[in-house]
């Protein structure tokens, strides 16, 4: 599996001071994955008291990260 980051994700990762290692861990070994809209998925992994949410799309064996951020808790999708 290859993980790539969109331009938007690269910008947000820098702004939010996130580590790509933590994002890769969230994608490869998530606590939860929840379907989202437009074929997107949201992966969550808890680190200390918060979760990292990574929004991504699967394209074959490639995962394209759209954005990522810290969240206090995850929300279940209505889809």
Terminal-residue CA separation: 26 Å
Main sheet characteristics: 5 strands, mixed
Q: Major sheet: order of its strands? A: 1-5-4-3-2
Principal-axis shape equals globular
- Annotation, overall tally of beta strands: 5
The H/E string reads: EHHEEEE
Please estimate the helix content.
10-25%
> Strand content of the residues, in percent?
over 45%
Class computed from helices, strands and strand pairing: alpha+beta
Describe this structure in words.
The chain is α+β, with helices and mostly antiparallel strands. The protein has one domain (2-71): Nuclear Transport Factor 2, Chain: A. Helices cover 23% and strands 46% of the residues. A five-stranded mixed sheet has the order 1-5-4-3-2. It is globular, with a radius of gyration of 12 Å. The model has no long low-confidence stretch (mean pLDDT 92).
Name the features.
single chain, 79 residues, alpha+beta, Nuclear Transport Factor 2, Chain: A, five-stranded mixed β-sheet, 2 helices, globular
Q: What are the SSEs and their pairings?
A:
Elements: E1 2-5, H1 7-15, H2 20-28, E2 32-35, E3 40-47, E4 50-59, E5 62-71
